[in-house]
Amino acid sequence: MQRYRRRIATAFSAVVASLLLSLSLSAAPARAATHDPIVFVHGLSSDSSSWDDWISDFEADGYSSSELYAWSYDWGQSNVTTASQLATEIKSVLAKTGASKVDIVAHSMGALNSRYYLKNLGGTSYVDDFVSVAGVNHGTSVATWCAWLYTSCKEMQTGSTFLTSLNSGDETPGSVSYASYWSDCDSAVVPNSSALLSGATNVDAGCISHTDMNNDHGVYEQVRDFIS
After folding, report:
1. Tens digits of per-residue pLDDT, 102-145?
2. What is the dihedral of CA 74, 78, 83, 84, to 10 degrees?
3. Cα–Cα distance between 121 and 217 in angstroms, integer?
4. Which residues form the signal peptide (predicted)?
5. Which of 24, 26, 60, 145 has its CA 20 to 30 A from that of 120?
6. Among 41, 50, 43, 49, which Cα is nearest to 156's?
C-alpha cells in the first residue's frame, strides 16, 4: 500500500511539474522583433539632430534606441574622408549590436559619402539596405556658391571628378537593396532628376522642400517600409 501511495505521489508531482512548465511557457512574453541597426548620415550644413523626428518615428514603430545611430561629421571635408569615418562608425555599430549588417539612411550630401563607402571601401559586405533621401547623387548646380570654400561642395558640383568616378560603372553595386526618394521641387538638388540612381527603387515623393525631406512623415513611412 505504501509503495502504491508513493507511485501515486510521484505521478501527481510529475503532472504538476508539467502543468507549471506549460503555464510558465505560455505566460512568457513574446520576444520583441529585432531589426538591422540603422545608421543615419546627414548632409551639408547639418548634424545628427536632423534625424530626431525620424528616430522618434522609428522608436514609435518598434525600434529600440540601441538600433538607431545618428552621427555627426565635419561636412566641409572631402566626402572621401567622411566615407572612411563612416566605415569606422559602422564597424563600431556592428560590434555594439552583434548584427552582421546595418541599413544606411542618408540625406542630401550624405548619400555621396555613403555611396563612396559602399563602392570603394567594402561597404556592400556590411550594408543590407541603402536609402538616399534628397541625395545629390549626380550633382547640383547650386553647389557653386560654396565650392570655393569647402571641398565637399566642390565634389557636389555637376561633372566634378569625384562624381564622375563615383557614378562610373554600376551606381548600385553589390547585393545591397537601394532606394532613392526625391522631390520634384527640390531647390537644392538642381536638376531634381540628379537624385535618381540607376538600379535603385526611385520614388518621387512629391513637392517637398529639401530640408523637409528627412523629417516628413509620409516619406518616413515609405523608407520604413522599404527597409523592413
Report:
1. 999 999 999 999 999 999 999 999 999 999 999 999 999 999 88
2. -90
3. 32
4. 1-27
5. 145
6. 43
pLDDT at 165 over 70: yes
Q: Is residue 33 part of a domain?
A: no
| Domain-embedded: residue 1 | no
CATH code for position 88: 3.40.50.1820
Spatial CB neighbours of 186, under 8 Å, sequence gap ≥ 6: 134, 192, 195, 208, 209, 210, 213
Q: Which residues are CB-contacts of 5 (< 8 A; sequence separation ≥ 6)?
A: none
Mean pLDDT of 183-212: 97
Could you tell me if residue 22 is inside a domain? Answer: no
**pLDDT reported for residue 135:** 98
What is the average pLDDT across 192-198?
Answer: 97
pLDDT greater than 80 at residue 67:
yes
In a domain, 27, yes or no: no
Helices (H), the chain: 2-27, 52-60, 79-97, 110-120, 151-156, 161-166, 217-227
Distance CA 104, CA 158 (A): 24
List the grid coordinates of 190. Answer: 538642381
- pTM attached to this predicted model: 0.85
- Among positive and negative, which fits the CA dihedral 46, 216, 225, 182? negative
Could you tell me the residue range of the domain that residue 60 belongs to?
38-227
Q: Which residues contact residue 32 at a Cβ distance below 8 angstroms, ignoring those fewer than 6 apart?
A: 62, 64
